[in-house]
Amino acid sequence: MTNKFKAIAIAAAGLAALGGGIALAQDGVVQQAVAAGQVGETAEGYLGFAQPPAAELRDLVDAINLRRRSAYSEIAERTGQTRQQVALETACSRLDDLRPGYAYQLRDGVWRTRGNAPIPTPSYC
In the 3-class helix/strand/coil scheme, how is 96-124 assigned residue by residue? Predict the structure, then answer.
């Protein structure tokens, strides 16, 4: 297992320990927004808005992203990587595991909806 894949595994385990990516979004408002394609995964390892959000939704997603940032920082400290490296490597895993119908954003800033075909992952994946 390469260092990159070890870091991804550690990052995924760290997020799982905190409740996981979208699993952190136990609030029904966020779950509904994800299912509706209003909120999705970004290539930077955070949730983003595919459509302009209401203030309540923005606050809830911001709180989830703060928890992710904290988890990435903890993992980075344990692995000797930067927080950004951990976030990007986790994003690779999250994009690979994204279900059809869910929104995602690559580094070009364009929001897309996952179909049945694989997502063209960023070059750092």
Answer: HHCCCCCEEECCCCCEEECCCCCCCCCCC
